[in-house]
Amino acid sequence: MVTKGALKNILQICTYAETGDGSQVAIASVTNQIQKLFEQFSTGGFRTLGVAYKTTDADKPITKDSETDMTFIGLLTFWDPPKEGILETIKTLNSMGVALKVITGDNTLVAKNIGQQIGLKDAQLMSGPELSAMSDEALMKQVGAVHIFTEVEPNQKERIILALKKIGKVVGYMGDGINDASAIRAAHGGRSIEWGLTSLLPARWPV
């Protein structure tokens, strides 16, 4: 059985880690080393996932509860740079009075790197865990000043949109998957990009 996901979650279900020579060591003995590699890749803008495995009986059903006592085997890294011309697009939006906010499930280090690439060098960030600990009233006071929301859960995207609307902002939202459905519907205008959630096309921009 092989599983992948956010590094924090993968490490929590691992008891061992496999080394380069195929031997196994206690996960606790290499956690700091793994975390440093993760931070190095993330700071460089790479989306990074953990991968683990364990041997199971062929006749035994695999369930969520099977993800215990696993062996960490490595990291998967993905490079997804901003599209060419994005800086000019953002400048055009700013000249029209449209402010850009980034809402992402990516970790804070990756999101900060991407923000710098698209011109948000001094951006104020807020993470999903910080958002969870915040009341709606506190969020309304801060949401306008935040440029990048990181490590955000799908339901938190809608909460951010609603907070922006409550402070008087006209909000447009663009997403690319089913996790964006509630946020798209909550915005004044919402659109799913063409390779994303086709059920939400066409755009809901008000006339």
Automatic annotation (TrEMBL):
It is found in: Membrane. The keyword Membrane applies. Coiled coil: none annotated. Its main location: membrane. SUPFAM superfamilies: HAD-like, Metal cation-transporting ATPase, ATP-binding domain N. GO terms for cellular component: plasma membrane. GO terms for molecular function: ATP binding; ATP hydrolysis activity; ATPase-coupled monoatomic cation transmembrane transporter activity. Pfam families: Cation_ATPase. Keywords: Magnesium, Membrane, Transmembrane, Transmembrane helix. This is Cation-transporting P-type ATPase C-terminal domain-containing protein. It comes from marine sediment metagenome. The lineage of its organism: unclassified sequences, metagenomes, ecological metagenomes.
